[in-house]
Task: inverse folding
């Protein structure tokens, strides 16, 4: 199994966590988003994934899957050992909703190509670009905090006392917030869950600082 990844990509980070939680070995194939004008834009990677986005998973049977949430669902269906979704339909829906709060509602607004467009094509300043990113990071964290703090199904982790796909998405988003100096004090439930995840080897090994292309 091969994972096209970039150490600071939160989408790739999600998948690395899931692979580790499931105990699946994989070959990391770094694709640098800044070097050489963006290695993800080169013909070699475009042939793998025409969207030019990361991550992409190549399975041993030849399956090629893009989009981090699709990869997480694929791993859940093909490697059901160490499940990352609850057994009950309502619980599965809640975990997916928590994950999508990050993956669909928050992360795309701060994606590298969006930030480059704001500063490049739109000609806005670095300060405006950063405030745009921080604003949407805060909005996403506020929503996630409300969903987690107000629900009795929240446990040690985002849903119950075992990590789920929601935690795979939550932790990289906290990393993004901290990287861009967003104050995380207003989100105590998120930070408690993040700390619980950070104590697990699967999350530690997936951290950007532990990747072969870390800078």
Result:
């Amino acid at each position: 199994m091969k994972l096209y990844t970039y150490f600071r990509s939160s989408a790739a980070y999600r998948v690395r966590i899931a692979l580790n939680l499931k105990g699946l070995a994989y070959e990391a194939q770094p694709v640098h988003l800044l070097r050489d004008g963006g290695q993800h834009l080169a013909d070699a990677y475009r042939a793998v994934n025409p969207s030019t986005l990361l991550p992409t998973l190549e399975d041993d049977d030849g399956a090629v899957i893009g989009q981090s949430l699709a990869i997480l669902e694929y791993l859940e269906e093909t490697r059901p050992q160490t499940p990352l979704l609850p057994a009950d339909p309502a619980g599965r829906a809640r975990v997916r909703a928590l994950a999508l709060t990050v993956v669909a509602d928050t992360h795309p607004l701060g994606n590298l190509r969006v930030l480059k467009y704001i500063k490049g094509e739109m000609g806005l300043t670095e300060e405006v670009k950063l405030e745009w990113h921080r604003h949407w990071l805060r909005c996403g964290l506020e929503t996630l905090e409300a969903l987690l703090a107000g629900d009795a199904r929240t446990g040690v982790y985002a849903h119950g006392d075992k990590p789920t796909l929601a935690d795979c998405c939550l932790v990289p988003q906290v990393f993004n917030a901290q990287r861009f100096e967003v104050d995380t004090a207003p989100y105590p439930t998120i930070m408690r869950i993040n700390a619980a995840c950070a104590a697990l080897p699967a999350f530690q090994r997936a951290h950007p600082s532990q990747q072969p292309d870390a800078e």
Notes: Strands lie at 2-5, 27-30, 56-58, 64-66. The first strand starts at residue 2 and ends at 5. The two ends are 24 Å apart (CA to CA).
